[in-house]
Structures are given as structure tokens and as C-alpha cells.
């Protein structure tokens, strides 16, 4: 039986239907702009456009068959060593006016050093063509520091600044005694009329599974903050789990409103003020004042494969094709502002969906652990040597309950903040609240209640055993008293 340890851790797809043969006749169809947009989505990689059309095999196909869509390309091979380095995925959702009629272009690029980020912003044409820009930062503190300054997140002025940068820099939570508490935090929506943006953020800790090392080997360097160890049935399925942390910053471009002249401009340097240690005021033209989403992730293992949104997996491929999905869901052509808003909603929804999937993985492992514990206790319910194990499990499930409640509260706070960010009458994270309510009920039914029932069974079994021993002892004492009385009577008579 093994241990599971938990630590506190441009492709183009174009489909046209210009001519359809049916019953020997040629039927010409001209699709509407909305329908054409549903069919045409252009994706761009590495600053160049590569058109991949649907190629039909040479064999004859009937008019109703449809070929399989080609997959997205990734232009650099990863090795186990390169996975340990920081990485930034940048996805630009290009404006409608800069693409051909009926098409949507998405430009994506992977960046592995600071010079790549500087080159990205050194191209003002690309910066101006994006209606929404997504940054996925994985184990890259050099990128986090650069982007914090570029979006003025690390501003010290309370009027336009957030303390979100302190949360990102503080990678390890503080211990309270021997425990490593996991938590989360949200930042209320803040409007910056000088930049013409509104912004909000949230960050959470979550449980992440890792593969358990061989007991004869040392624990891998970089895995710290272990939360719990769980048993498993399969000798090949032996991950140990740790805590990780991710944080998300959402910035929405809005119409620039008139600012009260009596309010001090935080971006204006006042003559006569200054000093060697004074905070450097950024210039508005040097900041990124467009709609953007920044997802910062840190994994205990240091690998980009161990973050909640793994690199080059389903979520990132989906994000590179978001206009494609939006075109199929909508019934009319989408404008740039509306597309940016809908993409933001889907990306935030996907982040919380990935969090729910991590919880489901934990519940699967935790259910197996509880099953092993039940087997051991049912063999001998009165075995008091298993009592410390029960108390340890109860304490672990208490920490898990607290964490799922933190996630539920953060989801509700995010809903209010995101509504204030863009549209007060729009709905955000509709399905997420139900998912976390379901997860909370599963934790109660699969982990907490079975452990409580085992503890109650042990208490009752020990009580029955002690009562039986007491009866046996009283009977033995009674027999001894009778025997002593008989012996004394015989001695007297003789």
C-alpha cells in the first residue's frame, strides 16, 4: 500500500459552402456575414501567418461528409529540462477591422526570456491591433516583474494601485504553528480614468497532485509545504499532493470619462517633489492600457506541466480558438468590444473549471484513502491504536473544508467584481457556483461523514469491549469471593 502526499502547493481552419450538388443540380449558396464568421477563424503564431486549409483526400467523398479539422501547431519541442524554465504564452485577439471580411485572427506566441517580452512591446503595430490580450505566466518571476510595471499593478499610490503585486511576490504562505494554511483573496474593482481602464484581481491556493518519490530516494528539491499524506490501492498510482497557487488580473478598457480637476493626477510629477528613494512615476504612453488578462501560476515542482492550466493542453488550445467557439454560439456578427468581453468571460470560467477539476482529482484520491481506512477499522473496530490516525484524518478534512469554503466565497466575490468591471447587468460564472456547491457536498459525503462514522464506531466498540471486560472481571471477582467463603467455612468446621 503506497502513500499519497498532499503538500500546500497560425493555423487557419476555413470551411466554405459555395456549391452543393444535390439530385444532379448545382445549388449556389452565399452565406451571410454572421454565418461566414462562424466558419472562418484565423489563428496566427510567431508573428507570421500560416494558412492551413482543409485538404480532402484523393478518394471521392459524398456531399454530406466533413473532414476532420487540423490541430493547432506548436513550433518548439519541449524537453523535461525546458519544462523547468519559466514560460509565457501571449494570445492576441485581433480587431475586426484589421482582418478580412468574415474572418477573425488570433495571434499567439510563446516567450521564454525577458528579451522576448521587450520585443513584443517594441512592436507598436501589434500592440494596437489587439482588442484583448491574454498572458499565461508559468513559473516566470522575470515576466511577472516586467508585467507588473507594464500594467502599473505595483503602483504605490492608493488611488490607482493595488497590493496585488505583494501577493504575487509572496510565493509561500506563512505557517501558523506547524500548520500551513491555504487561503485566497480578491481585490475590488478599481477604475482608473486617466488610463481609461477598470481592473480587478483574485488569487487562490489549491491542492495539486505530484508523483510520489521512491522511499529510498530523497524527496525532490522544490517540493515544499506538505499538507497531508494519503494511502492508495494501486502501487502504480502513487502521487503525492501539494499546495500550489495561482492569481488572475483582469483589465477592461472603457470609455475615458472626464476627471474631476480637483482630484490629484497620480501620473503627474509635481515640481519640487522627489528624492532618490521616491517611487518612479510611469508615463501613461508607456503602460498597457488595453483589455488584458494576466494569469500568474507557480508550481512547487517548478515545472510548467504541473500548473493548474498545463502548457499546450486542452485549455490553451481552446483559448487560441475562442473566436471560433463564439462565432458558433452567436447568431450575429460580434463587434470588438463584445468579443473581448465574451472572451474574458470564457477565460475566467475556464480557470475556475480547471480548479474544480483539481478538486475532483483530490476527491477521487481521498475517497480511496477513506476506503482503506474503513477496511482497517472494520477488521477490528475496537483497535485503539488506529485512533490517532482517525484524529489526523479529521484534522485534514477540516483544512479541506476550510479551503473549499474559501473558494466558494471567492467565486461569489468575483461575480460581483466582474459585473462592476464591465456590465452590471451581465452574468458571470453562472455554472461555477453550482460546481463548487456540489464539490462541497461531495467533501461532506465522501470524506467528512465517513470519517466521523468510523470514529463513532470505534468509540462504541471500545465501550462495548470495556463493558464486556468489566462483566468478566466482576464475575471473576464474585467467583473468588465464593471460593474464599467456602474455604473459610470448611476451615472453621474442621
Task: Offer a concise description of the structure.
This protein has helices spanning about 35-40, 115-120, 125-130, 140-150, 165-170, 315-320, 320-330, 335-380, 385-420, 430-494, and strands spanning about 1-5, 10-15, 20, 25-30, 40-45, 85-95, 105-110, 130-140, 185-190, 195-210, 225-230, 240-255, 290-300. With about 500 residues, the chain is an alpha+beta fold. The strands form three sheets. A nine-stranded mixed sheet has the order 2-5-7-6-8-13-12-10-9. A two-stranded antiparallel ribbon has the order 1-11. The protein has a two-stranded antiparallel ribbon with strand order 3-4.
From the structure above, extract its key features.
494 residues, disordered N terminus, 39% helix, two-stranded antiparallel ribbon
Question: Strands, helices and their partners?
Answer:
Elements lengths: L1 E6 L4 E3 L4 E4 L2 E4 L4 H7 E6 L41 E8 L10 E7 L2 H8 L2 H6 E9 L2 H10 L13 H6 L14 E9 L4 E15 L14 E7 L6 E15 L38 E7 L15 H6 L2 H8 L6 H44 L7 H35 L8 H64 L1
Helix pairs in contact: 1-7, 8-10, 9-10
